[in-house]
Design a protein that fits this description.
With 304 residues, this protein is mainly α. 70% of the residues lie in helices and 0% in strands. The protein is built from 14 helices and no strands.
């Protein structure tokens, strides 16, 4: 009886697996493979005649290397936001560690830190903009200590616009990553920490030789995920500066402005230029990600 039912069970299992994977595979073929193949072809075609050419790459290189080029400024700001994200990730780790050590009021602070992820981004930007306004609380505080803000404010000045938006990113950056690190800390066996303390392990040694190695898989995964967006790092530029007139351009916003534009004018429709830029950034970013992944895998993980 077993020999007769085994082929039928095997066939049913195969049908179940194919049916289960059909929709995700179809979605990947349509919304990823087809779109990316089309984007790859557009990089080598002219916008109107669709003739094969390298003009898109030439224009991209000119915008990248020219002193007043938009892509060069966007790439600079993107790297600044990427470095800021790395700093925020480290700060999230520090905050989560203090929560793990159960400081006074850690439950309340954990909710407070997660508020920016619950409240709408438009509302957060509106509150932040009102706070840093010349006539707002920040302007009053600076005036009280003898510092006068410029009449145009921080967001309408090329020297202070990007740092001001980066400060907002720091303010709202303690959200999801804190919860992920808290979950990693919570998985550490309490018996292991207590045993280390009985053996005379101090707080510093406990942190660097026990705690951090135990959560290294979570840290390495988040690091690799952050690197995958090295050329997509950006702040809420569209909410702060819809017209982008104060050197706040990033790669993500540049792509948006090239394709869709801003306001009622619309974008330039430079799909070929955007595709060429994406292809160049991919050729640079993939080796970096693979190299960092190779380095991360060299660090031994701890099983517990």
């Amino acid at each position: 009886m077993k020999s007769r039912t085994r082929p039928k069970n095997s066939l049913n299992r195969k049908i179940f697996i194919v049916t289960l994977l059909a929709l995700p595979i179809l979605q990947w073929l349509v919304f990823w493979l087809y779109v990316n193949i089309n984007s790859f072809i557009l990089a080598f075609q002219t916008p109107k005649t669709y003739e094969w050419t390298f003009s898109n790459f030439q224009q991209f290189w000119y915008e990248l290397t020219n002193v007043g080029g938009t892509i060069g400024l966007a790439l600079k700001n993107t790297f600044l936001y990427f470095l800021l994200n790395m700093v925020i990730m480290f700060l999230n780790l520090v905050v989560a560690y203090f929560f793990y050590k159960q400081i006074v009021g850690y439950k309340v602070f954990r909710i407070i830190y997660y508020f920016p992820a619950i409240i709408s981004g438009v509302a957060m930007v509106a509150v932040y903009t009102a706070f840093i306004n010349t006539n707002g609380p920040l302007g009053s505080i600076l005036s009280a200590i003898g510092i006068e803000m410029r009449p145009e404010g921080l967001l309408h000045n090329s020297d202070t616009a990007t740092p001001t938006i980066m400060a907002y990113c720091i303010w709202t950056g303690f959200t999801t990553n804190v919860l992920l690190f808290c979950g990693a800390f919570a998985r550490i066996p309490v018996e292991l920490i207590e045993s280390a303390r009985l053996d005379g392990c101090g707080p510093t040694r406990e942190l660097f030789q026990i705690t951090l190695p135990l959560i290294w898989p979570t840290m390495s995964t988040m690091l690799i995920f952050s690197l995958t967006g090295i050329f997509a790092a950006s702040g809420p530029i569209l909410l702060f500066d819809p017209e982008n007139g104060y050197e706040t351009m990033t790669i993500s916003y540049w792509i948006f402005s090239q394709v869709y534009g801003s306001g009622a004018v619309g974008g330039s429709g430079s799909y070929g230029l955007v595709s060429a830029a994406g292809l160049c950034f991919t050729l640079v970013g993939v080796p970096i990600i693979l190299f960092v992944r190779w380095l991360v895998e060299k660090v031994p993980t701890v099983e517990y």
